[in-house]
Amino acid sequence: MEREKMVEELAGIVGKENVLSSETDLLLYGYDASLFRGRPDCIVLPGSTEEVSKIVKFARANGIHIVARGSGTNLSGGTIPTQGGIVLHFSRMNRVLEIDIENQRAVVEPGIFTLVLKNQLARYGYIYQPDPASEKVSTLGGNFGENSGGPHCLKYGVTTNHILGAEVVLYDGEVIQVGGKALDHPGYDLTGVLVGSEGTLGIATKLILRIMPKPEAVKTMLAIYNSLEDAGRTVSAIIADGIIPATLEMIDRLTIKAVEESIHAGFPLDAEAVLLIELDGLKDGMERLAERIMEICRKNNVREVKVAKTEAERAQLWAGRRGAFGAVARLRPNYFVCDGTVPRTRLPEVLTRVMEIGRRYGLAIANVFHAGDGNLHPLILFDERNEEELRKVHLAGSEILKLCADAGGTISGEHGIGTEKMKEMLFVFNSQDIAAMKKVKKAFDPEDVYNPGKVLPEQTLSA
Amino acid sequence: MKQEELKTLLYDEIAKCNRCGFCLAVCPVYTVKGREWATPRGKNALIRAIIENKIDWTPEIEETLFRCTGCRLCTQTCFPAVETNQGVLAGRECLVDRRQYPKVVDRVVEALEKNFNISGESNQSRSMWVEGLGEVPDHKFQKERAEVIYFVGCVAAFYPMAHKIPQTFVRILDRAGVDFTILGGEEWCCGFPLIQAGMKEKMGKLVEHNEQKVKEVGAKAVVFACPSCYHTWKERYHTDAELLHSTQFMERLIEEKKIAFNNGIERKVTYHDPCDLGRNSGVYDPPRNILRKIPNLHLVELEGNRQLSVCCGGGGDLEMIDPELSAAIAQRKVEEIQRTGADEVVTSCQQCIRTISGYARKHKIKIRVKDITEVVWEAMVK
Amino acid sequence: MPSTMKTLSRLQEIVGEANLIKDRDRLKAYKLDGKTPKVVVSPATVDETSRVVAYAYEKGLALVPRGNGTKMKMGGIPKRVDILLSTTRLNRITDKDCDNLTLCVESGITLDEVQKTLAREGRGYFLPLDPPFSDKATLGGIVATNASGPKRLLYGTARDLITGMKTVFPNGDVVVSGGKTVKNVSGYDMCKLLIGSFGTLGIICEMTFRLLPLPEKEATLLLSFQKLEQADGFVREIISSQLIPASIETLNRPALDYLKRQIPLSTDGNYLVAIGLEGVREGVERQMAEIGERGKRYGCVNAEAMDGEEGEAFWKALRDFSIWSDPDLISLKSNFFLSKHGEMIASYERMTAESGVRSALICHSGNGILYSHLLTAKVSRSKAEVLAGLIQKMTLEAVKNGGNLIVESAPSSLKKRIDVWGEARSDLRIMQRIKEEMDPRRILNPGRFVGGI
To answer: Would the CATH topology of B104-254 be identical to that of B261-381?
Structure first.
């Protein structure tokens, strides 16, 4: 379809001002936080479910693809329009529709920033648990699409454990409700399938979230190590002792350097690694548990354990963790985030081999991990403008994922497959596994309207 | 500026942007517009695409680059601290070089070239506000030599709504026994609007003139109630005189016991950090220290304070270029102020006052906006 | 349809003669809503399972999966029953990795057996699921029906605990989904689709669960109230507090009376609120004291604390209520908005009383799930009419309060008159599409799931 005609039709649905199609806009909606680029045919900013439904009907009737997008913070190219079509930017649908304290649910539109909801909930003493590092700007619609994680997922689970229902626009424009405010609706768990489907199955226009009273007490500790291995051993030892903290994060020396240059989080520059350990829950017994954790740290040669004394100190430590990705851009202009996951006890060995891969390619690698659940984020540092380096980065990234898969883990813990890791899907799944997923895609979106060219590799090896 | 120069100056800076998008959450323009072009990330991407010859100077790029308040909250919250505003200003210079910029800019440039102020009136009217003072010494605050020059700034001098600021500030200086002068018709615009318009090469004449005046008066210090004048002088002027914002100067006068408060003011106020004073010049404590010295005055902070203060909408010539957008940003500022439950918002910038109270008045919202000089004077005479 | 003889010999080739039942009399024990399977097969491996399913698919034979048969009354009346596939020989623990808090098991093993093994490991671990009949119920059955128990308040349900699965799909494909790590967003979350899918999409052969270390301390607190408003007010205060109980169950008088026949209880109120606590010692002790105090403020007439074995006996009796209380029991499960707790119990008591039916109500108060056990003797034709009407009314009430109603067990005569899966919702179309794509020949458990799937 001619672009002009497309724009005109879409303007009829959402108003002229909410359809963008200039050269500039096509460039601006062709990227996200990954290394991939695409180019849409136009961008639409819907204001309601009805508008989304009409847009989808129009698109389907004319064989146009649709990619839904929130803040475009995706790290695997999930929001890149690889085959043109319409990008639906949800910035206008960003309201909290309901904070329902007595039912412990919040109902929101997909375009709202995660932290905006959390700040509103805080006024009621409530919390929505998932805490992706980008929560300040990531949208809940994006979290839904990616099944986002975050440090506190160690104790509380990931996004899918906190989304109970949604209003979804199907590929033909029909609007359905999946799940709901109540638990255990009869039938297949469609909510569970949609969460993490990276916008390939349907478009959520309303989300129902589980919220809970915020924990009575929190204790945040920073354990400082002279050796990365000791820090790694501490992680396993804490879990083996029967303690599941709310978070168990690890940051290595190179990342510490970048973070401290960026904001003064209080991580010592001469440490090889730090662990950010947080306990939350009832205040009773917390001191004893904290002491037990410190004892385990000491047994594993910790240099020092600092305890955050005030909320401000705690916030500062977390600001350091959340800014870790961005901050490494101070060392080299660009970073490539790997997102492999391995069984926790395999972390130290996998880490050593990750560093070997870095050395082999001559690439510096900084490390940030959700150590408690075995989720590594090796950050490969490079300059995107250097094509040879970029090529090596992709090869090294793929090798790291192979390493994780071979260690009994997987190729994405929380950032998704997107366009980036489709071929690596074959590291963990065979053609039968992928064929089964394709059936799900076909059930929801038989005409491939939504986010084509993502998640599932086209060519699968024979079983 | 030519495209080649843009590359030399800014390619490495802009390349640090990894499109993480953290800036979206804080950018006042994106908060209103909700479109990628409005984001600092988007602006970086466009400058980069220009440098890499991937896109031409489209009309949309012009529109985009001229819609930035220069508040630099994006850089403040960016972990690699990408200086997006530098890219924006350089981009504007390139656009000017191509004669591709909003027409309204020409009016201001013309006014500056003809009258050395932004208003279009004769520069002799610069001290009109003195008339409103009632009792005035014979020299009308214009002396040939003085220890201190009070650099009034165009907005405070020419817009009656802002006259209160110079009026109260000279009263304070007078009562504190400061040997000061204003430059009257010999004060020329500091050049800030030209920097914002992408025409900083045109400001040389203004800078030279003002620097010369400081020498002639033999001033040891120049004080400003306008954060943008202050910031421009700090960044672009060469002078031996000390440059101080009114809040820094008043804080000093209080320490020296030249300003004294008696009964104080029973009031709950909040303080809005002007971008050019706070984030862009690093002056956060003096205004707060002053307010805390006033007996019975209770200061509550805004959600975004100090380094994280959110622009009022009046920064970077935005009010001139896109008044509607400026007002929409002001609306959010007003809402943020209302959430504090303060009786009054105090700031230290005539432009912030204009933007905030302008929005409030137009929408019949009751909100008292005061310059810090007014609050100080009120506490001095009470 | 192939001849039965041919089918039997082909299946026998796959599983071996000893693992196949074809004798008519023995098959009767496997009757499902009056329909007798032609054969029962018990494959021992995933591969055998795959071959059985592939054969059924090829020949278009209806295949019904079964563990130890604790849930055979659930679901709609099957359209066809050709092969009954028993998973009981798939009963191995394939990977016990307590250091990583994961356990991989085959579907035919019982939950109790798993728990016993885990408790003996190192410092002691457990799989945080507590559905009914844990001594008999197989993990495959528990997961396929998404069964849960009181502790779901703290630990969630299968969807929160399963990280990976190996399933035989209707065409015989062995499909691996998820993995061993808790965080995993590689591809679609097929596990979610299979949990609670009632064997209609695939035969679950192997599952990977998250484990937890055994809690330091457990305790149980029983609080009795005379009035529903008191119990409801109390329960809702606890739910909205910062306390973290493992379970909050509310029982009405008939439920309590039945329970008393099973275990000694000193309580004498009309409503019993049972609270399970577990975790750090200090936390459990403090909650015991505080919850007791809060109960008094709501007019609690009697509070009883239990620990250890006594507590465990109470919870087991409560969980297994439907098996020992009455063989002809009609069990209903309703979900609803948390805040409608009191209203739901009150309206169900009123509705059942109006229909002259005694009903034992047991509510997962912190989750908004209410089990109604209708205590009726044999259902006659006229009575079936009344009961169908009652269930319809109760369904509408649940729908009004944001939920729905599932009939978990009922005689076939009643099942014929109602939809055991409650009111259809707008997502049914996609469910049917999924079934169509996955199982176009409709061989897996046909007719027993939502919307006739």
So the answer is: yes
Range of the domain at A272: 216-321
B297-301 vs B267-271, strand pairing mode: parallel
As a whole number of angstroms, the distance between CA A378 and CA A413 comes to 13
With tokens 């291995």, the residue in question is A229
Q: Is there a contact between A450 and A171 (Cβ–Cβ < 8 Å)?
A: yes
Measured between alpha carbons, how far apart are the two ends of chain B, in Å?
54
Please give the structure tokens belonging to residue A146.
């990616």
How many whole angstroms separate alpha carbon B319 and alpha carbon B16? Answer: 30
Whether residue A436 lies within 8 A of chain C, CB to CB, comes out as yes
Contacts of A23 in chain B (CB under 8 A): 55-56, 58, 60
Position A462 pLDDT exceeds 60:
no
Fold classification of B3-97 is: Fumarate Reductase Iron-sulfur Protein; Chain B, domain 2 (1.10.1060)
pLDDT at B352: 96
Q: Position A201: which residue type?
A: L
Q: Helix (H, G, I), strand (E, B), or coil: what is residue B205?
A: helix
The tokens of B198 are what? 């992408």
Q: Which residues pair with C251 in a beta bridge?
A: C272, C362
Could you tell me the pLDDT band of residue C1, with boundaries at 50, 70 and 90?
low
**Model pLDDT, residue C380:** 79
Indicate whether A446 pLDDT > 90.
Answer: yes
Residue whose tokens read 């933007």: B355
Q: Does residue A92 contact residue A47 with C-beta atoms inside 8 Å?
A: yes
User: Which residues of A are less than 8 Å from B36 in CB distance?
Assistant: 25, 28-29, 43, 72, 89
| d(C-alpha B24, C-alpha A137), whole Å | 7
List B368's β-bridge partners, or say none. Answer: B344
B window 19-38, beta carbon within 8 A of A: 19-25, 34-37
Q: Residue B57: phi, psi to the nearest 5?
A: -75, 80
Q: What is the DSSP string of A11-76?
A: HHHH-GGGEE-SHHHHHHTSB-SSS-B---SEEE---SHHHHHHHHHHHHHTT--EEEESS---SS
pLDDT at B120: 86
Chain B residue numbers with beta carbons less than 8 Å from the beta carbon of A22 are: 58-60
Which pLDDT band holds residue C325 (cuts at 50, 70, 90)? Answer: low
Is the distance from CB of A271 to CB of A337 less than 8 angstroms? Answer: no
A33 touches B: beta carbon within 8 Å: yes
Distance CA B296, CA C181 (A): 59
What is the structure's pLDDT at A451?
98
DSSP code string of C253-266: HHHHHHHHHHS---
Q: Which residue of B has its CA nearest to A322?
A: B79
Q: Report CA-CA distances (Å) from B267 to A130, A173, B254, B292, B346.
A: 41, 56, 20, 12, 11
For chain A, positions 231-270, list CB contacts with chain C under 8 A: 236, 239-244
User: Taking CB atoms and an 8 Å cutoff, what residues of chain B touch A24?
Assistant: 37, 46, 55, 58, 60-61, 64
The CATH class of C93-213 is: alpha beta
Assess whether chains C and B touch, using the rule of 3 or more C-beta pairs within 8 angstroms: no
| Region A405-410 average pLDDT | 96
Q: Kindly give the residue spans of alpha helices, DSSP state H, lying in A170-323.
A: 190-194, 228-240, 253-262, 286-299, 311-322
* More confident of the two residues A52 and B79: A52
Could you report the per-residue pLDDT of B239-251, keeping only the tens digit for each?
999 999 999 999 9
Is B104-254 a CATH 3.40.50 domain?
Answer: yes
Q: What is the pLDDT of residue A461?
A: 42
CATH number of C325-415: 3.30.70.600
pLDDT confidence of residue A463: 36
- Checking DSSP bridges between strand A217-225 and strand A273-281, what pairing results, if any? antiparallel
